[in-house]
Amino acid sequence: QAKMAGKNCFRYYNRAMDHAVERRLHLEQELRGAWDRGELRLVYQPIFRTRDRMLVGAEVLLRWQHPVLGAIPPTVFIDVAEQSGLIQQLGPKVLDAACHQARQWPRNASGEELFVSVNISPRQLRNGDLIGEVGRCLRSSGLAASRLHLELTETAVIGDEMLAASLLEKLHRTGVKVWLDDFGTGFSGLSHLRQVPVDGVKIDRSFVADLQRDPDDLALTTAIIAMAHALGITVVAEGIEQQGQFDLLEQRGCDLAQGYWLSRPLETDDLVRLIDATVIESC
Ligand code: C2E
Ligand code: MG
Ligand code: MG
Ligand code: MG
């Protein structure tokens, strides 16, 4: 009896695995032509300065609306793009489009130019010509280098310190800013901040989520902010969904804030309207 059940179980498991592999391959095929078919688009999530609530920049997030499969989450298709190598074609397109769109944004109410923050996947770092791409995008768009921020994940950067050090050095020379995304999730964390030259860290939203309930998360967040500031590094908190979280982060001196409570990701036109609206309100 038990043996039978085990057998069935095994067979079921196998079929589920086949199905997952098939689905992945299918997604990969579909993703290959998705950009040219116009199924991919960029949205921008506003980033605010905590101190004065000023809109100071936005993060580009890729969206895929498949005609049959519907909306496919980035966590799924970015992974497919990364594993298959498709990210090598997709990444530069996102970077280029983001630089061109950001070039068109108006200044904020304080007269500052907004930055645009672009996610760079580990594979783009390892096998791509990131420095070349960044240079090309800046030149063709006319965007000032200081307005481009690149978000690299902590694990991708720390994983290969030699590469990281030389690459980050070169990136800095182009004038762009480098942020560590999802900071705190990799366990290397704070001690490595001294060795890798980054301009900012984004505290992962898993810490932000429990800020009000979990004293450990609050302690860690407070430590990250203090440590980063001691090293002259900017701190961004992502995934802020409630005012209580924002208030705690503000008290702790967190520099920048991003999350649904402040704004959902927006189409570029809506972002421009939001920048303009902020100007009108302050007049
Ligand atoms: P990420 O870079 O950490 O981006 C932040 C994610 O958190 C986004 O999810 C954003 O929509 C979501 N988010 C923002 N505020 C809140 C909030 O208050 N609550 C919650 N629960 N979530 C919030 P999204 O757009 O689904 O993207 C997921 C991940 O996919 C990104 O994580 C990033 O790693 C990757 N990704 C998205 N676009 C790109 C891209 O163009 N290139 C690369 N390489 N990766 C991308
Ligand atoms: Mg990011
Ligand atoms: Mg993140
Ligand atoms: Mg994340």
Instruction: Identify the overall geometry.
Output: globular
Number of strands: 9
The helix count comes to 11
In percent, how much strand structure appears in the residues?
Answer: 15-25%
Order of helices and strands: HEEEHHEHHEHHEEHHEHEH
Average pLDDT works out at 89
Task: Fill in the keyword field for this structure.
283 residues, alpha/beta, globular, binds ligand C2E, binds magnesium ion
How is this structure best described in words?
The chain is α/β, with parallel strands linked by helices. The protein is 51% helix and 19% strand. It has helices spanning 2-32, 74-84, 87-104, 122-127, 130-141, 154-159, 161-174, 205-209, 215-230, 243-251, 268-282, and strands at 40-49, 55-66, 70-72, 115-119, 148-153, 177-183, 200-203, 234-237, 256-257. The longest helix is centred in the N-terminal third of the chain and has 31 residues, at 2-32. It binds ligand C2E and magnesium ion (3 copies). One magnesium ion (MG) is lined by residues 182, 204-205. Residues 24-279 form the EAL domain. This is DeoR faimly transcriptional regulator.
What is the structure about, briefly put?
With 283 residues, this protein is an alpha/beta fold. It is built from eleven helices and nine strands. Strand 1 and strand 2 (55-66) form a beta hairpin.
Layout of helices and strands, plus pairs?
Elements: H1 2-32, E1 40-49, E2 55-66, E3 70-72, H2 74-84, H3 87-104, E4 115-119, H4 122-127, H5 130-141, E5 148-153, H6 154-159, H7 161-174, E6 177-183, E7 200-203, H8 205-209, H9 215-230, E8 234-237, H10 243-251, E9 256-257, H11 268-282
Parallel strand pairs: 2-4, 4-5, 5-6, 6-7, 7-8, 8-9
Antiparallel strand pairs: 1-2, 1-9, 2-3
Helix pairs in contact: 1-2, 3-5
The structure holds ligand C2E and magnesium ion (3 copies).
